[in-house]
Task: inverse folding
């Protein structure tokens, strides 16, 4: 055979082989998808950064090494001016390496933040930490449960919990950030938000909206620009013609639609929260308040467990921890899920957190539901061993809290459930003995220091409620404190164990709280409690 | 890893020795070369002509164009993408740092490639015949080429400095535009009102302040004709990050966009005390006599112990330092004087609740600074309220000029008020310093540009020297290795545990050799220790005398040595063999 003919034959054979192999591609792709070997689609917003990796393919390793060295060096020197950008660049150069994202976020939120003094500076780094994951890490790795778990943990633990010295500042700023987007209060129409289109162009197809926007535009205000419409709503001195349009009853629905649209857009763009998902979650977990960091932790933890990479693995530590965070969040909603903002919140007065008993049943239901995803022993009943201690401890405390709040029936229901599901000698003496024991364990009321501390906390809560305008709840809390004080005093045999008079203690608490309040809030508190602005009694320090 | 470094060290030493041998061999070769050629008359004209041709070559050479284009693309890109830590101060610092760093890096590479190529390529392609056959001495050819490379660098440094300055102004402009937008949308101001506020903020000079004592509040109040309280209400309508950014903007003005000099307490001369202590220990028979306790190590240990007395403030006591700063001007609103400090404690402090209910968090200390004579009427204390401060972190406060004595004497007193009974430690190196404004940011940036030029002048000389006897690839490789080693001195020293902090107490023979070799290498291969980037982003002045010192060290003896060697070698170089 001539060399040319042989070459031609080989070329044809090669092409035939290639064509044959190509026919297998669809089936191979299907197998890749079913085996979870396909990288998730990258959202458009995150795509330009993805070019950095391929562009630096050859020199990526030394560049990453250099950036790590630089980041470590600057941290040692206490210089953080480009720590965020360095972390972001390092992560973008290794976009699929989940641990790199998780480490950098944790480093900023925990390590860097605590080296700084002022709450504003600390908050900046806590935010940088969770925003790195939420805004960059998760969009690039939508199936990496570790990132959801890490994000949920930073929100739950660093912002939501009481560990950091500046936790009140974080809570306040987080709540203000959400209020800035959604408006004040806890209740928002997430279903209506979810129904709105994602772009202004789509919204403007509504004839009424278009007509309103055109009229407003003629008056010099372009409501298709972000921030412009919301700004009009908050301005007091609008020109007459604009004010007339903004109060025209005929346009009330349109105004609400535009208002909701811009708020929803910010919720989606800035907080990365999908209102449709909030609606679904609230159906399952109850009406949580998005101003609480725990609500966001719950959102991300649940999303992580839902779309995480390996749902078939019997034991995935990240999924388990994300599930646990969900339960911790519900536990916190029960303990302090009702957030009340001070009228002087913008001046830096921290919010108030009150229990929300509506979440007790939700936690139990969630625990049962999540247990279905984990292997159980016959002795475990319907609760997986992974969550038993969380749930049983919670149920005991909840039974006590319902009892304290006078909801005896609910308290008994919880007790009965515990007796059935959590065999333990603690229940042998019956309901009353159980409550008495829990009471003692919880309060350790017979000790002076604990009794005084407990009373001061209750009085503080009562004073804060009154100062924030929640008079009924404040009065109820104060009455409960008085009952505890009376009971304690009755049980005292020696004078050395006696507490100061109830009124003296309360006045002390009010004056102490006054030091941390804005003058107008303190005045309101004094007025409502009838306490003189000038101290008349001795301090109740014991 | 250690073996790797040893091999690398050996390779570099070998490379240096071979280079030196080649230089010497070529320089003193008697085979061929130039005869005479030391004429001075008309030298300047000829050097200028060669420089002009070299500059033109630099501007059209592909490799130079690549770096120039990279510079032109990178700086605006950096400006657009700078985020820093998310604040305006972080953005500006980050942009300044990366812009200056990248400029220095690109220009160093450009200089290395250009200087290694310009002569070597002409020799390789025989273009040099056109020049060498002219009545122009070879040293003037080299001087002209060097001058051409330096002028090219000067132009590019000026361009990069202008770009850096413009970028910084643009970042501030963008911040102001964002702030103006916020004031209009959230604060309800009209556009002229918002602009008046921005103008007033830009015009602020002198000391800063936090919260209600910020100079931004009266400045805005003046611009709007409002009361301070009304301005505070207005500011509270802005998002928290904008308010924080405003504070950082004020810090940027005082701490970064400025040139500040520093005075530090000088550690006392301990030599007499060290000898006395050692004598006493010897008399008492308490000197260690094991072989690892060499006299030098004993002396160092005693010095550290004595120094502790200077650097430690025991609980409920005070320590005083007297520094000489500049005499405070009476009517200069721009004059700023501040104390910067970073303290640590003898043990890790844990959380403690005080009797008055306040909590001292862990890893903090409680101390009070007094500036000025505490017995006089003009002293100033900081913080106004006892406040726990984080250890091992820099803190800074501004000092009113009246607490500084007219001759510039500053009396600094640190009182340790921490009830946890811990010693407060003031590190000798960077524990405390007094900073004061000596010039503007613009002046510092120009000084930085000149400083940046100095290593480039040396690299040009080095590259030319290599190209007198090597081909372009070899000359470029050696110059690159030289540059890489010079830039990573601290990294190499840390990796080999040769720094004071990391060095083992007792050095083995291998360590000793390694240290001696590294020290020798670092003293030869060096581009100076003045970091332009660090100085500029921290608002620290680059003094003219420092620039002179750097020029003397880097361009002076090292550069002259390189150019001298280049001339000697090139004079003896046989550019063309005469075949009869």
Result:
């Amino acid at each position: 055979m001539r060399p040319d003919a042989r070459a031609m034959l080989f070329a044809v054979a090669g092409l035939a082989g290639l064509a044959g192999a190509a026919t297998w591609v669809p089936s191979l792709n299907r197998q890749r998808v079913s085996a979870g070997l396909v990288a998730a689609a990258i959202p458009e917003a995150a795509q330009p950064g993805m070019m950095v990796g391929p562009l630096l393919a050859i020199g990526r390793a030394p560049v990453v090494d250099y950036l790590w060295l630089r980041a470590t060096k600057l941290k040692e020197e206490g210089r953080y001016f480009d720590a965020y950008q360095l972390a972001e660049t390092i992560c973008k150069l290794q976009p699929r390496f989940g641990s790199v994202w998780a480490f950098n976020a944790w480093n900023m939120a925990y390590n860097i933040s605590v080296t700084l003094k002022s709450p504003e500076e600390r908050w900046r780094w806590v935010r940088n930490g969770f925003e790195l994951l939420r805004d960059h890490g998760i969009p690039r790795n939508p199936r990496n449960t570790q990132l959801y778990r890490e994000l949920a943990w930073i929100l739950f633990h660093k912002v939501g919990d009481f560990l950091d010295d500046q936790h009140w500042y974080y809570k306040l700023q987080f709540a203000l950030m959400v209020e800035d987007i959604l408006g004040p209060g806890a209740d928002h129409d997430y279903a209506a938000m979810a129904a709105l289109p994602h772009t202004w162009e789509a919204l403007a197809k509504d004839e009424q909206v278009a007509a309103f926007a055109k009229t407003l535009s003629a008056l010099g205000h372009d409501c298709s620009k972000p921030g412009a419409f919301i700004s009009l709503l908050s301005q007091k001195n609008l020109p007459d013609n604009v004010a007339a349009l903004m109060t025209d009853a005929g346009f009330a629905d349109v105004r609400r639609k535009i208002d909701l649209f811009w708020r929803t857009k910010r919720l989606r763009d800035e907080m990365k929260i999908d209102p449709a998902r909030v609606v679904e979650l609230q159906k399952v977990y109850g009406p949580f308040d998005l101003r609480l960091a725990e609500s966001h932790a719950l959102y991300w933890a649940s999303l992580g467990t839902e779309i995480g990479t390996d749902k078939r693995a019997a034991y995935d530590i990240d999924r388990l921890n994300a599930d646990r965070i969900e339960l911790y969040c519900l536990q916190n909603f029960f303990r302090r899920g009702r957030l009340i903002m001070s009228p002087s919140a913008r001046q830096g007065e921290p919010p108030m957190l009150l229990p929300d008993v509506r979440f007790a049943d939700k936690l139990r239901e969630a625990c049962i539901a999540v247990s279905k995803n984990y292997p159980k022993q016959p002795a475990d009943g319907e609760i997986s061993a992974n969550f038993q201690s969380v749930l049983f401890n919670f149920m005991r405390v909840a039974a006590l809290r319902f009892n304290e709040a006078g909801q005896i029936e609910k308290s008994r229901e919880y007790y009965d459930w515990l007796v059935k599901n959590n065999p333990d000698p603690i229940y042998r003496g019956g309901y009353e003995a159980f409550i008495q024991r829990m009471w003692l364990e919880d309060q350790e009321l017979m000790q002076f220091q604990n009794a005084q501390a407990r009373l001061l906390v209750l009085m503080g809560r009562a004073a804060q409620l009154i100062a924030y305008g929640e008079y009924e709840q404040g009065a109820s809390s104060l009455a409960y404190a008085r009952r505890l004080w009376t009971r304690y005093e009755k049980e005292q045999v020696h004078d050395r164990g006696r507490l100061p008079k109830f009124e003296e203690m309360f006045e002390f608490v009010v004056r102490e709280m006054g030091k941390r309040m804005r003058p107008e809030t303190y005045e309101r508190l004094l007025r409502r409690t009838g306490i003189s602005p000038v101290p008349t009694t001795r301090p109740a320090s014991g | 890893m250690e073996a790797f470094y040893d091999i690398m060290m050996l390779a570099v030493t070998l490379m240096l020795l071979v280079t030196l041998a080649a230089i010497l061999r070529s320089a003193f070769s008697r085979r061929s070369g130039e005869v005479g050629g030391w004429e001075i008359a008309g030298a300047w004209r000829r050097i200028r002509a060669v420089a002009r041709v070299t500059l033109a070559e630099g501007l059209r050479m592909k490799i130079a164009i690549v770096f120039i284009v990279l510079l032109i693309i990178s700086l605006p890109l950096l400006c657009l993408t700078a985020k820093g830590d998310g604040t305006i101060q972080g953005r500006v610092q980050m942009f300044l740092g990366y812009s200056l760093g990248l400029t220095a890096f690109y220009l160093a590479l450009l200089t290395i490639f250009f200087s290694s190529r310009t002569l070597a390529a002409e020799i390789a392609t025989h273009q040099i015949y056109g020049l060498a056959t002219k009545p122009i001495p070879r040293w003037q050819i080299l001087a002209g080429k060097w001058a051409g490379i330096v002028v090219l660098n000067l132009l590019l440094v000026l361009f990069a400095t202008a770009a850096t300055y413009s970028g910084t102004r643009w970042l501030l402009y963008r911040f102001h535009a964002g702030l103006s937008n916020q004031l209009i949308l959230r604060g309800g101001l009209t556009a002229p009102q918002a602009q008046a506020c921005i103008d007033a903020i830009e015009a602020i000079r002198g000391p800063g302040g936090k919260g209600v004592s910020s100079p931004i509040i009266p400045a805005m109040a003046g611009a709007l004709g409002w009361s301070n309280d009304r301005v505070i209400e207005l500011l509270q309508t802005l998002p928290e990050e904008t308010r924080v950014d405003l504070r950082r903007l004020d810090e940027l003005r005082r701490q970064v966009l400025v040139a500040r000099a520093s005075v530090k307490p000088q550690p006392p001369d301990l030599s007499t005390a060290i000898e006395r202590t050692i004598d006493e220990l010897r008399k008492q028979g308490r000197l260690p006599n094991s072989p690892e306790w060499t006299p030098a190590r004993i002396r160092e240990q005693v010095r550290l112990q004595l120094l502790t007395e200077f650097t430690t403030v025991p609980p409920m006591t005070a320590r005083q330092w007297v520094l000489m700063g500049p005499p405070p001007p009476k009517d200069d609103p721009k004059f700023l004087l501040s104390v910067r400090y970073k303290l640590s404690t003898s043990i890790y402090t844990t959380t403690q609740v005080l009797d008055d209910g306040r909590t001292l968090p862990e890893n903090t200390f409680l101390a009070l600074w007094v500036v000025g004579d505490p017995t006089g009427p003009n002293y100033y204390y900081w913080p106004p309220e006892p406040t726990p401060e984080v250890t091992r972190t820099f803190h800074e406060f501004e000092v009113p000029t009246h607490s500084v004595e007219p001759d510039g004497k500053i009396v600094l007193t640190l009182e340790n008020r921490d009830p946890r009974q811990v010693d407060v430690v003031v590190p000798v190196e960077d524990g405390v310093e007094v900073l004061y404004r000596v010039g503007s940011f613009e002046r510092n940036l120009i000084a930085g540009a000149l400083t940046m030029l100095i290593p480039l002048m040396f690299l040009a000389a080095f590259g030319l020297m290599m190209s007198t006897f090597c081909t372009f690839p070899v000359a470029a490789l050696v110059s690159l290795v030289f540059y890489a080693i010079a830039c990573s001195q601290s990294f190499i020293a840390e990796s080999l545990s040769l720094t004071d902090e990391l060095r083992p107490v007792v050095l083995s023979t291998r360590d000793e050799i390694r240290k001696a070799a590294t020290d020798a290498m670092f003293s030869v291969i060096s581009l100076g220790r003045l970091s332009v980037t660090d100085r500029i982003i921290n608002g620290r002045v680059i003094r003219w005398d420092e620039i002179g010192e750097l020029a003397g060290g880097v361009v002076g003896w090292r550069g002259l040595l390189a150019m001298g060697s280049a001339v000697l070698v090139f004079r003896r170089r046989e550019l063309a063999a005469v075949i009869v």
Residues 514 and 522 of chain A are 5 Å apart (CA to CA). The interface with chain B takes residues 69, 78, 80-85, 88, 114-118, 120-121, 123-125, 127-128, 165, 173, 176-177, 180, 227-228, 231, 234-237, 346-347, 512 of chain A (CB under 8 Å).
